[in-house]
Specification:
Blueprint (H helix, E strand, L loop, with lengths): L38 E6 L15 H18 L3 E7 L15 H4 L12 H11 L3 E6 L18 H4 L4 E4 L2 E4 L4 H17 L4 E4 L16 H7 L6 H23 L4 E4 L22 H4 L4 H6 L5 E2 L14 H9 L6 E6 L17 H10 L6 E4 L2 H5 L5 H9 L21 E8 L2 E7 L12 E8 L12 E5 L5 E4 L8 E8 L12 E3 L8
Parallel strand pairs: 1-2, 1-10, 2-3, 3-6, 6-7, 7-8, 8-9, 9-10
Antiparallel strand pairs: 4-5, 11-12, 12-15, 13-14, 13-16, 16-17
């Protein structure tokens, strides 16, 4: 992700250059229709307190309230997934960790919140209450964010295993060529997979460091020790990252088969001038500069989704947004493609193209015109909350006006639940109370994860493909819902479907009609 101007120097180069199912099988609707299936994500960055908490010295209750306010705002704008940064620099925003508490949470690395508080658990619970997935966002190789090494906790891994790191650009980074480093990172991530009810594991673009003129990566000795049959250190570096991604993909799914694993890489894999298979661009790249062969990870099926950070505008001379959307959509190899978008750029004085209020909305329209694009993720949460040029309003009132389910990942699970049983709708003083019974066990013996409640007027055709009819998406096995928005003395039709962990959807219940009455019962 892009961070603020306080970001350490080695990462400055990655910032964009300035310039101008009830329905089975799942079919993405035409672009002219509101999509019922769409990934609508946002990054919540904790590093240097970009999004949360606003101040590491705030009392715990105020930090909690800030996070609730963020999630409420996300829910209002139609977001259905949050990428919550839990490990910015070999530290932790979660309690069940062998790594120290983050200084961006409490003001001092290793210092626990007081009173005790587990931000990740709290965020998961509250996101799920609001019908949003939570993906735990890890920075795998960044060990420090600045050169103030004396401020690190004695328990920090750089002090425990100093030989595992090299210094580049004034910060310490894990050395990916050391097998024990890869094992350690896998162990850290699996600890979260095992101990928290997250929906996905998410990593961004920081693999080997972005190039800094005049500096070299100090891993020649590691290459001698672990290079094996490789004769080119660059190929060896790429293989080191490949080994980590493959191990993570295999291990995450072995621990929890339904866990989504995704990467948000730099937006260019290779340029066409470097490789005919590359994109029609002339910018930096992840393959040669970061040693990250992101296209290979999709080809091999090691990751479930990719979120290329396409933080450029239409027609940008080095990396046109439209060229990269088209290239990535041709290179997903059956995995999900979500596009990383940059509302933060509307606040940059020199990013003139993003001062056009149509730039971001037109990007969303362009994505929806491509059937292989499954959604967006926005950087970052605070940028959206600030409503750049009215864009957030357009999400709420237009693009994300109606709820959407995340698209299912059929390679992980294609078996839907059975429908709920015995739906009963009863009017009461508050509106309509809906109750039903848990479905029969699915064919794959998977428990029901939640329900989708649909509401229609008595003149509507019961059509589950149109998201405007979705009243509520529920991520819990509770078999009761109260519709407090029903108007008195109008006839409504209700149906309910069940969803499993991967958001496969059952056939609906039989339709039930009800007329809410006035509080006097007349």
């Amino acid at each position: 992700m892009v961070v603020t101007k306080t970001q350490a120097q080695p990462y400055a180069s990655k910032k964009p250059a300035e310039g101008d199912n009830a329905e089975r099988p799942v079919v993405k609707p035409a672009a002219s229709a509101e999509p019922k299936r769409e990934f609508r994500g946002v990054w919540i960055a904790t590093v240097v307190n970009i999004d949360w908490p606003s101040d590491p010295h705030l009392p715990v209750e105020k930090q909690k309230q800030q996070l609730l306010d963020i999630l409420d705002a996300d829910q209002r704008m139609g977001i259905n997934a949050v990428m919550f940064q839990v490990r910015p620099a070999a530290d932790a925003f979660y309690a069940k960790s062998s790594e120290p508490w983050s200084r961006w949470l409490t003001g001092k690395q290793g210092q626990a919140p007081d009173p005790a508080f587990d931000p990740l658990q709290f965020a998961i619970t509250e996101a799920h209450k609001r019908g949003m997935e939570l993906h735990a966002w890890f920075n795998p190789y960044r060990a420090t964010f600045d050169g103030n090494f004396k401020s690190l906790c004695t328990c920090h891994i750089t002090n425990q295993e100093p030989s595992w790191f090299f210094t580049y650009g004034g910060i310490k980074l894990f050395n990916p060529g050391i097998p024990q480093v890869r094992d350690y990172i896998v162990k850290v991530i699996l600890n979260v997979v095992d101990n928290y009810d997250i929906d996905g594991v998410h990593m961004d673009d920081y693999f080997y460091p972005y190039k800094i003129d005049g500096q070299t990566i100090k891993d020649a000795e590691t290459f001698k020790a672990y290079g094996g049959e490789f004769t080119d250190i660059k190929d060896w570096r790429r293989n080191n990252v490949d080994l980590l991604i493959q191990a993570l993909g295999d291990s995450i799914h072995a621990h929890k088969w339904y866990m989504k694993f995704g990467i948000a890489p730099f937006g260019i894999w290779k340029n066409a001038r470097q490789d005919p298979d590359g994109s029609e661009t002339t910018g930096g790249d992840s393959y040669y500069e970061l040693y990250a062969d992101t296209r290979k990870w999709l080809q091999e099926g090691w990751i479930d989704y990719v979120v290329p950070q396409l933080y450029w505008n239409f027609g940008y001379r080095l990396a046109p947004f439209e060229n990269l959307v088209d290239w990535w959509s041709d290179n997903t190899y059956g995995r999900h493609l979500y596009i990383g978008q940059a509302p933060y750029r509307a606040f940059e004085p020199k990013s003139r193209a993003f001062h056009n209020p149509l730039e971001l909305p037109n990007q969303v329209r362009y994505l929806r015109d491509n059937n292989r694009v499954e959604g967006s993720v926005f950087f970052s949460n605070n940028s959206l909350i600030k409503n750049p040029l009215g864009f957030t309003d357009s999400l709420h009132t237009d693009f994300y006006k109606y709820p959407a389910l995340p698209p299912p990942m059929l390679w992980l699970d294609s078996v839907p639940p059975n429908p709920p049983k015995n739906l009963v709708a009863q009017p009461n003083a508050l509106g309509v109370n809906l109750q039903w019974q848990t479905p029969e066990m699915a064919a794959d013996s998977e428990d029901v994860y939640g329900y989708v409640i649909y509401r229609f007027s008595d003149t509507d055709t019961v059509n589950l493909t149109n998201p405007k009819n979705i009243l509520h998406i529920q991520y819990s096995a509770n078999t009761q819902y109260e519709d407090q928005t029903a108007e008195k003395n109008k006839t409504y039709l209700y149906v309910i479907t069940a969803i499993d962990r991967m958001k496969n959807e059952s056939y609906p219940t039989p339709t039930v009609a009800v007329v809410p009455y006035t509080t006097t019962g007349k």
